[in-house]
Input
Amino acid sequence: MNVTISPSSVRGTVRAPPSKSYTHRAILAAGYADGATVQNALWSADTRATAAAVDLFGGEVERLEDATLEIEGFDGRPDVPADIVNCENSGTTMRLVTAAAALADGTAVLTGDESLRSRPQGPLLEAIADLGGEAYSTRRNGQAPLVVTGPIAGTGVSIPGDVSSQYITALLMAGAVTDEGIEIGLETELKSAPYVDITLEVLEAFGVEARHTDDGFAVDGGQSYSPEGREYAVPGDFSSISYPLAAGAIASDEGLRIEGAQPSAQGDTAIVDVVERMGAGVDWDRETGTIEVSAGSLEGIEVSVEDTPDLLPTIATLGAVADGDTYIRNAEHVRYKETDRVNAMAEELGKLGVETTEEQDSLTIHGSDSMLEGATVDGCDDHRIIMALALAGLVADGETTIRGADHVDVSFPGFFETLEGAGVGLEREEA
Output
């Protein structure tokens, strides 16, 4: 699907979708339990992949009409999957499910789409081998398809922290149901650390104790997953909130109200501070979970995305509208997402008349040297690139057409409906 965005002002009230990060973890945690109800769950392409994996491990995920998932778990010991585990485009699914597969007494095969088959899995495979399992890439390059044989026993492992925090999440979740538990030593500084904090928060809600150590993390073995009242509620998603928040900052003279913004461990809450620092009007009522945002004269700032890689596309678009330079640093790990998001934003914003400087670990947006003009851009099969480019279309001179826009289904299935509800003019065309 291609979507054409007309220059528009946004107003009214929008609601954030549930958190994708929390939903992934909650679905698998309910699988590790003997069952649980997950309320306010995000049902997207990525989270459906995690649910399908739980089914293959011997659980059952049933979706009800009110964003509720009724999940029958496999109670800590997954079955050997009767089919290949297809993780689709979801890197989170592949990392978390790879560790779960290593608990089964047999062999599992995991794969995904072309993009996912290019993403690094080697450190997690090595950790599983160190824990007594067998895990390898069929192409011997550390990338899917993966073959995993368990069961692992649990003990100590070391792993790099600067490739993906999801390795740590996967091992902590699986380690709780091993006999000995797992201690994880970090070989390098941890990137995207708030995502591990999300994991610790979800584990605690499911009755599992995990902790920071002097050189990494640890989880004791022999634990059971059991949320209070057999229920868990997913909070709103600040990665997704970043898009209406930025839309309000660049295209809302009347003001835009965002609901579902309760505080949590999500590092991407940093987008509220970023937008405010750049000069937009922002009022976040943490108690009610509402944010009021209105447009202002934006100024470029310096931002590190070391812990918030998913925010880079949004910040890049904000920089395209701001005066001066917006310098986004500590960004090398953002190149290993669904696409190389540093390069993708530089290339696609360039088609809209935006001047950028791309380096291996940074992206600088030269707002004062840019003139946003409508053009046809490529969504790069990446939900975050698509949504960020849609924001640029709100204030570009002329219409902006985004190719492959249906990929927003990965994290924000109702994104374009949300824009329309806020007053944005857009047209859809089947590609």
Notes: The chain has twelve helices and 24 strands. The CA atoms of residues 88 and 256 lie 34 Å apart. The chain has two domains: 2-17+236-429, 20-233.
